[in-house]
Each structure stands twice: as C-alpha cells, then as structure tokens.
Design brief:
The chain is of the alpha+beta class. It has three domains: 5-51, 2-Layer Sandwich (Uridine Diphospho-n-acetylenolpyruvylglucosamine Reductase, domain 2); 59-172, Uridine Diphospho-n-acetylenolpyruvylglucosamine Reductase, domain 3, CATH 3.30.465.10; 179-283, Enolase-like, domain 1. The chain contains eleven helices and 14 strands. The strands form four sheets. It has a five-stranded antiparallel β-sheet with strand order 4-5-10-6-7. Strands 11-12-13-14 form a four-stranded antiparallel β-sheet. Helix 9 (227-233) packs antiparallel against helix 10 and helix 10 crosses helix 11. The longest helix is centred in the C-terminal third of the chain and has 20 residues, at 264-283. It is globular, with a radius of gyration of 19 Å. The N and C termini lie far apart (43 Å). The relative contact order is 0.12.
Length: 289
C-alpha cells in the first residue's frame, strides 16, 4: 500500500472538518472491512484516512423508542445489532438477516454506517433497511439532513452523500403489525455475496395484502424498490397467481446486471421466482418485522 495520513478525531464534527469535499482520496472509515481490502488490492489509494473509532460514544448506541421507532448509531457493530435484545424483540428480521451476513469476524468489526455508505449493491443490510422504510441522518458542514435508504444510492458503489458528509444515525420506523423478511440466493455458501437479494415488509388484513414494500439488490447496480410489484400485491389476496403476477411485474421493472454470479437471463428467472418466496417467508415469520 502507498503511504497515507491517518487521523483519529474524537468528535463527529472534528471528523467532518478533516474531510475534503473536492478530494475523493480523503476517506472516512469505521470498521474498514471493505476499505482495507480495496487498499490491499490497489483499487483505492488514500491520501488521508479519517478514523471514526474515537468519536462520541452515542454514535455506537441502539435505542427503541416508546412508539417502537428504532435508532441505531452509525458506529454500532453489526454483531451488536444482531444480538441486541431490544432489536430482537421489536425487529426480529435483523437477527435473521445477520446470520448469513458475511461471517461473525466481519460482523464484529463492520459498522452499520459503513455498511450503508460503502454503496456495494451486494450487501445485505441496505435492501432490508430500504424495505423497512428506514432513513439515515447525514451530517456535514452545513448541518444535517435525513435521506431514505432507498434514495441513498446513485449507482454502483455510489451514494448521494457528499465527500464531507457522514452518516450519523439510522432511524427505522415502528413496524407495528407488519412482518418482514430478507431472502438472498447465493451461488456459493450461505454467507457468500448474493446473486440476488430481496427484502419484504408487508401488512395484511386477513389473507389480503394491505400494503407491501419490496426491494431488490445484488442483481441490480444499486438498491431498487420494486414499485410495480408492490402495486400488484397491495389490496390483493396472497395466492399463487398474485405472487406469479408480482414476479412478472418485478422482472419487467428491475434493471438487472450480469456478473460472475449469473447472467441477466438467469437473474430474471431468479427474481421471478424469489419475489413469491420472499413474500411467503415474510408472511410465515409470525412476528412484526
């Protein structure tokens, strides 16, 4: 690796002040699990790394409010989310998703904010948070703003964050009686990068869908909401025919990309079938979110 400057500020505002909006070689890092691999491979050569490991402790906390809203500090390790009793009680889908999110060593080091800001469409957390209608609190020199997770991504490894903006917190609204699931299909082991990932959050009235939130990733260049498939499901009874139509709508609207994990035609068939499987998984989860 080429030489670089390493700085360790003790506050979020100090960290923001060390970033340079006009210089992409100045980069913040949290757990660094992805960044270190990119540096070792020579894909990224920083001039300065701004470590967030010593900023205020409140950015590493989890809280569930009285209304059921979940707030996760951006510096919270993934494994902390996985084993949090509060999260498991209110949002069991997180623990279910984390079981096959990379491996325990990575989950112990990787941080929630970094997993979102990295912009890799193969990651598991962004589509799940998007399906749950979560939003991030981004902080920069001009103040803070909230961004819906499904609007955070601009393309492959690209977000709408400025070079001198940092994710400070993730806010997940209460799911109440909604049920959720994350389904991924891998060509290798269970915790490998997926060829396709689908996240679902659904509310029902009896056997009819009142509202559905569907998000696809991995097979696309960025996290993508399946709006047409959502419309097919909303107000309809959950039948094989409804799920087939939702799958057909999904493949018509999704902008799929081929890679080493599968061609576009292969991923079209995966998406067609897996939309129904993900919805069934959410309905059978038996608990809100």
């Amino acid at each position: 690796m080429t030489p670089f400057e390493l700085v360790e500020p003790t506050s979020l505002q100090a960290a923001i002040g060390l970033l340079d909006e006009s210089d992409p070689t100045v980069r913040p890092f949290a757990g660094g699990t992805a960044l270190m691999l990119m540096m070792k491979a020579g894909v990224f050569r920083p001039s300065r790394l701004v470590s967030l490991g010593k900023i205020e402790e409140r950015y590493s906390r989890i809280a569930v409010g009285p209304d059921g809203e979940l707030r996760i500090g951006a510096m919270t390790p993934l494994s902390t989310v996985e084993y949090s009793r509060e999260v498991r009680a209110a949002f069991p889908v997180f623990a279910q998703t984390m079981r096959t999110l990379s491996n325990i060593r990575v989950r112990n080091v990787a941080r929630v904010g970094g997993a979102l800001a990295h912009g890799d469409p193969h990651m598991d957390l962004p589509p799940l948070l998007a399906a749950l209608n979560a939003r991030v609190v981004a902080v920069g020199p001009k103040g803070q703003r909230e961004i819906r997770v499904d609007e955070l991504y601009a393309g492959y490894y690209k977000t709408v964050l400025a070079e001198n903006e940092l994710i400070a917190e993730v806010i997940v609204p209460s799911q109440k009686t909604r049920r959720a699931a994350y389904f991924k299909y891998t060509t290798g082991c269970a915790d490998d990068w997926p060829a396709l990932g689908i996240a679902v959050s659904i509310a029902t009235d009896g056997n009819a869908v009142r509202d559905a939130s569907l998000v696809v990733s991995a097979a696309t260049e960025k996290v993508m909401r399946l709006s047409a498939a959502q419309k097919v499901l909303s107000g309809a009874a959950v039948t094989d025919d409804t799920l087939r139509k939702a799958g057909e709508a999904a493949i018509e609207e999704a902008e799929l990309v081929g890679d080493s994990r599968g061609s576009v035609p292969y991923k079209r068939e995966l998406l067609r079938v897996c939309v129904g499987r993900a919805v069934r998984m959410a309905l059978n989860s038996g608990a809100a979110a």
